[in-house]
Amino acid sequence: MPISQIIKQRCKVCNAVAKEKSSINLSSSKLISLECGHMTTEAVIASADYDSIISSDGRKLMPYQVEGVKFLERANGKALLADEQGLGKMVQSAAFIRLHREELGQIIFCTKTTLKLQTMWEMFRWIDKDLKIQVIFSGKEIAVPGFDVYITTYDMLKEDKVWMFVKDNIKSLFLDECQAVKNHLSGRAKAVQKFAKDCEYIIPMSGTPIKNNAGEYFTVLNMIRPRMFPEFNRFIRDWTDNYETQFGYKVGGLQSADQFHELTADFILRRTKNEVLPDLPELTRAFHHVELNPKYNAAYGNAMKELEAIYYSEKAEMESIIAVITKMRRITGLSKVTECVEFVAEHVISTGRKIVIFVHHHSVADLLEIKLKEYLVPLGIHVPVLLNAQLSSSKREEAVANFREDPLSQVMIASTLAAGEGLNLQFCSDAVMLERQWNPANEEQAEARFHRFGQKNPVTVTYMLASETVDDYFTELVEEKRAIVASTLDNREVAWESSSLMMELASALMSKGAKKWTL
Fold this sequence. Notes:
37% of the residues lie in helices and 18% in strands. It has 17 helices and 18 strands.
């Protein structure tokens, strides 16, 4: 592979490298003046029916998300979506795909390894449950022609043999967490650029598109606006604070931030929660799908066999069924710790906001504490605050006060039951529900600790789910019931009857969830 894969377009008249001088938006196209003196045009995506975007679970786009979709249309499908974490960049990109599937053609959606399944589920929820999606899990797989969307990782794009049958047909490229290609000389960046140079539509997304210096903007800017940013050295010289050292140029921040933001306002969209949700905030439940850690496959499969034996026995006792399902919940909880730590670490680094992780089992809390210390202490962040049932009422209040007042205390690990009542956490607006409760009312009690008078920010509770496990099937049952209640009883508390829910869950596990885990 050559030293660089920087994208350069050429003037169709004189063949010089096309460098944009100015542009004029017309009704259905954009007229672009080049530095060489010639002109070129670019088609513009038409606006669409935004009210038609309703998810499979009945949600509509929020007003700022509609504006995000309109922004992508005005940018003709080549723009950086840089909204703060938690504002739904995935939702906006999925809505854009839903409205313009014909124009976008076959799509590669590139994301982190741990987010492939999450991306697939969000697409089914917001685009079409019949959307043809192939998820590429390893370099041994081949992208098969005929799919609408190929979900993969940045490293998989480097595997030419994976894409040999579809590469020429890829029309659109979506890049989640695009800071992964911030170094334009890296293998990942080169692989992405090889696809990008032939794609008509490119949507990079990240709440933190740059992490160290303004030079990291270049790869993405070159992909979405190659006529404006055709050369790395020119970008560093014209737009960044830089100076020469014995090891080469040292790059800092933007040289003229206001001018840069004015120049890029048509193709970089950055919004924070405070900007787009200024009123009394809503509570959002987000579902983050991960794969079961392979080292827990055998344990989970054995638990499924145990459940099957009890369920089909002549005397299937509720207590025995709940005991086995509880064991399965603990296995999935331990399995999700690594993904949870990565999610929380990224949240803290990118937003600076505090976050609470709700758990149920002591073993899950203990493992989570160990892993969080390994990640966060080297960054200067204090060890996670622990809140469990063993603490007295005064000690619990003291722990919450320390979490609230200490600026370096960013993470709390809390027992869902211990934190469900009598605590005020409205100074914090983010939480992860790592382990589900059998009675969802207990989860709603925990959510209410944040979503109460005095809360100034939108509250986001992320439910972390291990796909094709007890997590998935229980969540499906609960959310179906929530949707029914929400459509008929406005703001009425839901009375959950645990034993009947457990029997439905056991039935779902036997009918849907047993095949994968047959040993």
